[in-house]
Amino acid sequence: MIVEKVYDFTNENLVDLSQIYHFTDANILTVLGSGDQYFSALLAGAKNVEVFDINYLTLYHFILKFTAIKVLSYEEFIQMFVVDNLDNLCIYAKLRDFLPSKVSDFFDTLIHLQRKFSSIKIHNTIFANAKFKAISYLAESEYYRLQSILNKTSLPKFYNCNLLELPDFTTQKYDIALLSNIYHYLALNPKEYKKFLDNLNCSDILALYTWVLSEEEQAEFIKNGFDIYQIPGVLKSDDYVVNLSRKKQ
Length: 249
Description:
Helices cover 34% and strands 15% of the residues. It has helices at residues 36-43, 57-71, 74-83, 89-96, 101-112, 131-134, 140-150, 190-197, 215-223; strands at 27-31, 48-52, 158-159, 174-178, 202-210, 227-231, 239-245. Strand 6 (227-231) and strand 7 (239-245) form a beta hairpin. Helix 2 (57-71) crosses helix 7 (140-150). The termini are far apart. The model has no long low-confidence stretch (mean pLDDT 93).
C-alpha cells in the first residue's frame, strides 16, 4: 500500500469538461486524487462514478471531504478546507462521529501525534486563488446541490491500484474515463499509451489533461488516433484535453 501526500483540490478546469463530455446518466471511471473529479461528475449528472488511485491516503482525505460536504454548512466547509487549510479541530469534531472508524482513527492519530491535518497535503500555492473558477461546488448554490446528491449516495467503489493495473480490477463498462495527468508519470509514448487504453472498456477516455503540450506531442497524439481540445485554463493560458474516443474506432 502506497501512502503519499494528497492534493486537497484539483488544479484542472472541471467546469468546462462538460463542453467535451456528456456526463448525464453516464457511468464514469476517474482517478480519485482530490476527489473533485468525482464530485464534479455527479454535479454534471453522472449516474455512477467509480474511482481509483495508487495512493491509499487519497481515500481517507476523500472520505473526510465527502462527509464534510454531507454534514457541514457551506461556510463551515470553506472555513475548514480553504481558510484553515484542514486545521480546524472544532469543525473536525462535528464530522468525527459521521466518519468510518478507520478514517476517524487515522485523523485522531494525527491529533495524538500533534501533527496538523494539513501535513497530509501537497501545498499548491500557484493554484490557491484559481480553484473557485474551476471547481463548481465551491459556489454556494452548487455546494448545496452537491450536498443533496451526496445525501442520497453511498461512497463509491475504490480501486487501490495504478492505472496500468486497472484492467485487472475493473469489469465494468464505462462511458467516460478521466485519467488526469497520469500519462506524464508513465514510461510510454502515445502509440504505446493508445495500445494500453484499448484494454479499458470505455467509450470516451480523457487520456491526458495538461497545461503544456508541444506541437510535436500534439502531432504524435493525433497520429495515433487521439483528439485534442483546448479549454480555458485555471491560470492564464488554455489547458489541453487529449481524448481517445472508442466510438469512432
